[in-house]
Amino acid sequence: MSSGWGTQDASGSGWGSSQQPPTDSFGTAAMADALPNANGRPQAEGSSANNVTGGQDGDPNSGGSAAEGGVADGWAPSQKYDYEQFTDARAGGFDGSKRVYHWDGEEGDLGPEFPELEEELFGPADKRDLPTGIDFSSMAPVELEQEGPIQIHPIMRFTEAGLHPAMAKNVELSQYRLPTPIQKYCLPAITRGHDVIGIAQTGSGKTAAYLIPILNKLMGKAKKLAAPRPNPATYRPGIDPPARAEPLVCIVVPTRELAIQIFLEARKFCYRSMLRPCVIYGGGPIRDQIDQLSKGCDILIASPGRLIDFMDRPQNLTLRRLKFMVIDEADEMLHDDWKEDFDKILGGGEQEEGNIQYLLFSATFPKRVRELAMTHLATEHVRFRVGRAGRANENIVQTIVQTDPSMKRQAMLDLLNSMPPARTLIFVNNKRTADELDDFLFNRGLPCTSLHADRTQLEREDAMRAFRKGTMPIMIATGVSARGVDVRNVCHVINFDLPSLDHGGIEEYTHRIGRTGRIGNRGLATSFYTERDEPLAPVLVRTLLETKQKVPEFLEQYLPEGDELENLQFPSEQDEGIGGGDSGGGWGGDAGGDAGNAWGGGETSSAVGDTGNAWGGGGDTTAAGSGGWETGGASTGGGGW
């Protein structure tokens, strides 16, 4: 196999003189739970086997014909996927149409247990494990600052949060053991009714930090607070008179994928509550979304464009009952061309009582976000900052690899074949590169899929579903997935293209690598560096220094010198109050961690054996060993991944 690793190496190994090939020095043996068992033929809820050719979720072992090209040892042959079988009328194929809990009895505001749905939401009782393996040895010392006259006393355990028994059970079923730093403060603050600004790095547990206390406050109060609505179990769209959606909670997010992700989490926390979650976003069939809203909606998750569309349809949606407004990933949405629309959204439309509790979450806190806070949040709101705004996750080991642009695809193949299998997210800068790299890896037998703006909404959701379930454990994506999306056990993020200074720069880099190392998990980020990335080099080096990562030899020319290095100061928001200057960019965290322990710790399953048995463990874990990507069962091969 030819080298793809630049021209520094004189030995012919393919690695530059300052580089070392990835080995188990990263502790990859501890990634035992990164892939679920993919022996079956999973299908989307609400769909039938006749709707697809092959597996509903991109199962490489079902349907289609094998892709041409060489297949690496241990890999199941890649399969072509027939999207022509999909139609927009097939509502069951969209995640927004997944089942939610409902009960047609009159025994109060809490329904009985529903074992079948409970298993769908939380997984089989004997196979449930942590959605995020929390490494509290790393998370505990994370600095959290709170500002303003109101000081919140944090909780240390969920049992201290005063949760309704049904919510406490849902938290337990979701396998949340201990709250993360942002959760320790947000739960009591939101419960007391304070407006909140939460500034936290990606992967800090922000979604649960607001979903749990909001839904807890509404738990057992659905019949008192919610609008009248038909019985979802017997409602017939187009025949029975529809209800107008009057949500109590509105959560606004920048991307479709994040909207779906939060909806799937809301389904869990709403279990038995009689509160009905719905999601609306651009690209999905608006007729299906109208049908979902017509059954009633208490918790609305929405992308801003589609929310504005529905606010202009008062027969379908009104915000007059709204009690909570959440803006998640605010810094991604608050641009000049959105100001008027956001003023309309945050004004609550025709909200009657004017008592909306505002919760604003962001990875950074630039001027436009501060101005929004000044306009809409209460004067005595509480503000939390976990670490420093825009920081890189301290649990991520960052590796920069120099290569020639013409050899990047081969370098990617070499990298993937040099390490044990793991759920891997690859970022590129444009749609064409995503398609070309997808074809290149697919035709060489790697189980990959891709995500970008030219995909239909059904294709996007199917790709995300396959990636989450592990049937396609390599995802190639443009920046559309860089913010907010949390897929369990993404062990490796690869920047096939580094972001340019004109398209996000170091802040975009920070958001991308934040897809791994989520909520205390250890992660690995590898970035290909070419001569075209030279403008990014100085700030990239500063990020590596701040996170105590090794600066490769070819970037040492950008190191500060002498006193400048000894007295190196990183941007701080100590003096950045409301109305202050613009945020400084995104820099890394304070601690990088040792590469030899990059994957250890937390609640993740431990490895069994050495590098040759890197995929130990039981339950849903697929034993792949050193033999390669084998999504159909255990591999005993000796080469490849």
Automatic annotation (TrEMBL):
Highest rank taxon of the organism: Eukaryota
Domain DEAD-box RNA helicase Q: 156-184
Region (Disordered): 1-76, 571-641
Record field: compositional bias (Gly residues): 577-603, 614-641
Alphabetized CDD domains for the sequence: SF2_C_DEAD (cd18787)
Keyword ATP-binding: yes
A Pfam family the protein falls into: DEAD
Motif (Q motif): 156-184
The UniProt record lists the keyword Hydrolase: yes
Residues covered by the Helicase ATP-binding domain: 187-383
Biased composition range(s): Polar residues: 1-10, 45-54
Catalytic activity: ATP + H2O = ADP + phosphate + H(+)
Matching PROSITE patterns: DEAD_ATP_HELICASE, HELICASE_ATP_BIND_1, HELICASE_CTER, Q_MOTIF
E.C. number(s) listed in UniProt: 3.6.4.13
GO molecular function term, any single one: nucleic acid binding
Domain Helicase C-terminal: 411-559
InterPro entries for this protein: DEAD/DEAH_box_helicase_dom, Helicase_ATP-bd, Helicase_C-like, P-loop_NTPase, RNA-helicase_DEAD-box_CS, RNA_helicase_DEAD_Q_motif
UniProt keyword terms in alphabetical order: ATP-binding, Helicase, Hydrolase, Nucleotide-binding
Gene3D superfamilies named among the record's database cross-references: P-loop containing nucleotide triphosphate hydrolases (3.40.50.300)
PANTHER family: ATP-DEPENDENT RNA HELICASE DBP3 (PTHR47958)
Family named by the database record: Belongs to the DEAD box helicase family.
Protein name: RNA helicase
Highest classification ranks of the organism: Eukaryota, Fungi, Dikarya, Ascomycota, Pezizomycotina
